[in-house]
Amino acid sequence: MKRRAFMLSCLLSALADSKTATPQYAKVLRGLALQFPRDHGAHPDFRTEWWYVTGALDLPRKDIGFQLTFFRVRTGFVEALASPIAASQIVFAHAAVTLPGDKLLHADRAARANLGAGFSTSDCDVHIGAWQIQRSVSDVFMLKAQDAQFAFDLTLTPTQPKMLQGDAGFSQKGVRAEQASYYVTWPNLQVDGSIVLGGKSQAARGKAWFDHEWSSEVLGEADVGWDWLGINLADGGALMAFRIRDAAGATVFSHATLRDVMGRTQTWSGAAVQFKALRKWRSARGTEYPVEVELRFGSHIVRTMPIIDDQELSTRRPAPVVYWEGLVQVEGTLTGRGYLELTGYAGKIVM
Questions:
Q1: What are phi and psi of 270, to 5 degrees?
Q2: Across all residues in the chain, what is the average pLDDT?
């Protein structure tokens, strides 16, 4: 849900004496025809947006996971100010590498738009310093991230068409019509490039999943977070599923989309999509996450198996947030690899 506008209690230093009206965020409307490449770009009138890439490498080692996500947030602060560097739009990013049999490496960045960060409204091009996701005219995406622990410079090449989730890109997230996002997925991207681990640059190759979502309201007042799954299936298909949870752990809303290798798409919602925790893992911070999940939809039953249990991310910028996001294998009536995201278990996600 990419997935993932979360974590936005951004207490930013706006001018204390500046008075702004309550911001009027753009609304997600059913029936709007998305236009590309424009809708690969940013939508600054909406409250939150994210460009989310996850992948599994087979070189330099099998089952190395990587993740790079950029978030754009319209803060609602100082919107009356004309300054291009006012804290009205914030960009932040999370990057991570999962090393099988070892550990998770992760880093984060944050900056104001036009002051260390930027985004395009005409195509996918978002950056914070040297971190970047950018689309070329040939639909190849370029990813760059550098940190003291790791770095990667990757290209993502489509092997099949993008998917418009939900109803032609309108993705319902709750019982109220306002709880929705525009949601575009590009699964089964071919990954090539390089990754730096332990100070050594090595060739990288694998498969990736790319989500782009923008919205102004996703969670209801009683909702605390979500479970989300994006899987590149072994046969060339793609599976996306999510559920929104309340404080008691009950499912408030759920949905699943399956596209087979022939390009045929099926969707399920409500009681037809069931998540069940099979095994929980407790982090050093004391948070329990259902890292092995059984998902049932239609005639399918699948189970997630994490590459390593400890894929908990603790980010600092722009505000402290703790959640689990990691590479998993899927077994059952469908098989493949992808990412499981578990938010709200360490506390309600503030959006």
A1: 65, -135
A2: 90
The 10 Å CB-count burial string (b at 16+, else e) for 92-103 is bbbbbbbbeeee
DSSP code of 198? T
Token pair for residue 265? Answer: 């798409």
What is the average per-residue pLDDT within 316-338? Answer: 90
Q: Which two tokens stand for residue 42?
A: 């940013």
User: CA dist 225 to 6, 14, 138, 257, Å?
Assistant: 9, 28, 36, 20
Tokens of 55: 């992948």
Taking the C-alpha atoms of residue 116 and residue 327, their distance in angstroms, rounded to an integer, is: 30
Residue 4 Ramachandran class (φ > 0 left, ψ -120 to 50 alpha, else beta): left
CA atoms within a 13 Å half-sphere pointing along the CA-CB vector of 150: 24
64-74 pLDDT, tens digit each: 999 999 999 98
Tokens of 291: 């890292």
Render pLDDT for 7-60 as a digit per residue (tens, 0 to 9). Answer: 333 333 333 334 445 778 999 999 999 999 999 999 999 999 999 999 999 999
> Do 128 and 109 meet the contact criterion of CB atoms below 8 Å apart?
yes
The structural domains of the chain, ordered by start, are 41-342 (2.40.370.10)
331 Cβ partners below 8 Å, 6+ apart?
302, 303, 305
Say what the pTM is.
0.90
CB 327 within 8 A of CB 275: no
Tell the residue number behind the tokens 């309340």, with chain if given: 246
